[in-house]
Write a structure and sequence with these properties.
heterodimer, A: MetI-like fold, 15 helices, globular, disordered C terminus, B: MetI-like fold, 2 domains
């Protein structure tokens, strides 16, 4: 049925397409790969462009300095606290809100949806929120990091849509005839049946907490409370490797070289947890995007 | 249940009956509702400081009203047009260049027959989405460093002069936009890939029997079927135009590129929290918010008129 000419043009398309996607994948992957090999290379080799595809002059000074630095450990600990506690709060709150919003017969459903969506379009803004956090004595406490981002409108909608699609209405009808209340239905049916969506939410909220630097920047003053990203900013972007990190290094050049290595190492150390969890949750999150078709 | 529903259409159910039926749902909502009131609606009440001279000692209510003083000051300040220009050109360029990339990526991926290759490219292109903006900025400064950065080494290899990318205002936008494409295209493509996989295979079969080439399949089947999704995403993007990422712009900013990198969100932050001009900052942010809403509503209207997809 097909003419030869068409076949060859399709062939050409395929070759072109595979090559293009291959190049795209390479361009995305290479910078990440480069950071990995650079983190264990000789800074001199990096600066002269000799590190391209494999590490040159194996060297772990960067990692040694990072692991010896107390402020990074402390920031790491803080970020873990914010991520674990924050995500737990997120999951409970999101489920609590998503279930009632998924009940079509619930009289306040439309009103509450509007009540929530409205905050997406109109916000108090930076300064009023900042003043409020101060008045509530949340400013410069750990609480602000886990309470302020306790709910996310998109995630509530994803979760609500998922409950609507995955838990048949008949199930509730049958249960309610047997005298099952909403509380019990929520606890014994909805929660256990929502494992997939909870996995997706853990990923979304967890990554957001892990990568958050803005709330720390605005609402935290004490360095002992700083999350990892804020400390990273100082070192990666503002070039302030802390003095005690460099303590025993004498010459300026050696210090500069160590600072470079610390940067590479820090990128790996700070991104590792997310990138390690990612393949395991990968099969879930594409689903999350799909059920989250944005219409309420 | 279904019968009950039909009944309820004809006969309004009394509030008491409804409350007896739904009180448990209300109880479940309680914490989230309190959260929204405290963390989102209370700050809205604080927006009034935009029309006042806020003094911490007098509080929000006690501070004196000054009308549109702060707005007038903003509109007549020499920064005003620069800020608007920087914000809009960054947003529009990002939309213009960044928006089509995930679409193209999804269409190309959809044409890949080998499941493993498709999976491989997808997994790699998602990856940078999970990297924090701080790390992304760190990587940018490393790769663009004039002395040791990989890009400048390439330039020098071909006999060019090293460019101090981070210090030149004209490079700010390209850096911002290209790094955004690098980080988010794979992730944004997911939703289009989902839309493409839901196209019925019969459609492709029928077209192939009629002798359509791959290029024709893309033009006449793929593009029309993802158009509604694309329009919806476009509306959402336009809604963010004035709220374009504070975080990345703030991190990429330095005193040398400030003429291009100062955008409204970063200005609000500096005026408000660094210079502590609370009322002035609140006024700028209110102005920004209102422009944003107007944009969103009008784009949605246009979308409603020209196609069937809209946000509400």
């Amino acid at each position: 049925m097909k003419s030869n000419k068409l076949l060859s043009s399709d062939r050409l398309f395929d070759i072109f397409n595979y090559a293009l996607l291959g190049i795209a994948a390479f361009l995305v992957l290479y910078p990440l790969y480069f950071i990995v090999i650079a983190s264990v290379s000789d800074p001199n080799a990096i600066n002269t462009g000799r590190v391209l595809f494999w590490p040159v002059g194996f060297n772990t000074t960067g990692y040694e300095k990072i692991f010896a630095d107390a402020s990074i450990w402390n920031a790491y600990k803080n970020t873990i606290i914010y991520t674990v506690v924050g995500t737990a709060i997120n999951i409970v709150m999101t489920m609590l809100f998503a279930y009632p919003l998924s009940r079509k017969e619930f009289f306040a459903r439309k009103g509450l949806l509007f009540f929530m969506m409205f905050t997406m379009y109109f916000q108090g803004g930076l300064v009023p929120t900042y003043i409020l956090m101060q008045k509530m004595h949340l400013y410069n406490t750990r609480w602000v990091m886990v309470l302020l981002p306790a709910l996310n409108v998109f995630n509530v909608i994803i979760c609500k849509t998922n409950i609507e699609n995955n838990i048949p209405n008949e199930l509730y009808e049958a249960a309610s005839i047997d005298g099952c209340s909403h509380f019990r239905f929520f606890g014994t049916v909805v929660f256990p049946l929502s494992q997939t969506i909870i996995a997706v939410l853990i990923l979304y909220y967890g990554v957001a907490h892990w990568n958050d630097y803005m709330n720390g920047l605005i609402y935290l003053r004490s360095e002992s409370l700083y999350p990892l990203q804020l400390v990273l900013r100082g070192i990666l972007v503002q070039n302030q490797a802390s003095a005690d990190m460099m303590g025993d290094i004498e010459s300026m050049i050696a210090q500069q070289e160590a600072a470079e290595l610390i940067k590479y190492g820090l990128i790996i150390v700070s991104s590792l947890p997310v990138l390690v969890v990612y393949p395991f949750l990968q099969k879930y999150f594409a689903k999350g995007v799909m059920v989250g078709s944005l219409k309420g | 249940m279904r019968k009950q529903k039909e009944k309820s259409i004809h006969k309004p159910v009394s509030l008491r009956k409804v409350l007896v039926r739904d009180w448990q749902l209300l109880v479940l909502c309680l914490l989230p509702v309190i959260y929204y009131i405290v963390f989102h609606y209370l700050p809205m009440y604080g927006v009034q400081i935009a029309f006042k001279d806020y003094y911490a000692a007098k509080g929000i209510v006690g501070s004196p009203w000054v009308g549109f003083k702060h707005f007038n000051r903003f509109f007549s300040s020499y920064q005003f047009w620069t800020l608007i220009k920087n914000t809009l050109s960054l947003s529009f360029l990002q939309l213009l260049i960044g928006f089509p990339v995930p679409l193209i990526l999804a269409i190309l991926l959809n044409q890949v027959k080998s499941y493993r290759y498709k999976r491989f490219v997808q997994s790699i292109t998602y990856c940078p989405h999970f990297i924090s903006i701080v790390v992304l900025t760190g990587m940018i400064t490393i790769f663009l460093s004039p002395r040791s950065g990989l890009i400048n080494q390439l330039i020098m290899l071909f006999g060019g002069e090293p460019i101090h990318f981070m210090a030149e205002p004209e490079w700010f936008r390209p850096i911002y936009i290209l790094s955004g494409i690098w980080q988010n295209s794979g992730w944004s493509a997911i939703i289009y890939i989902a839309a493409l996989t839901s196209i019925s295979p019969d459609l492709y079969e029928a077209a192939k029997i009629d002798g359509a080439s791959k290029w024709q399949l893309i033009r006449h089947i793929d593009i029309p079927s993802i158009a509604p999704t694309a329009i919806m995403m476009l509306i959402l993007e336009v809604g963010k135009i004035m709220n374009i990422g504070f975080q990345k712009a703030y991190l990429l900013q330095n005193s040398l590129n400030i003429t291009a990198s100062e955008i409204i969100p970063t200005y609000i932050y500096k005026i408000g929290l660094i210079d502590t001009q609370y009322s002035y900052s609140a006024a700028i942010s209110l102005f920004n918010n209102i422009v944003n809403i107007i944009l969103l509503v009008s784009v949605n209207k246009i979308a409603q008129k020209t196609s069937e997809s809209s946000l509400w």
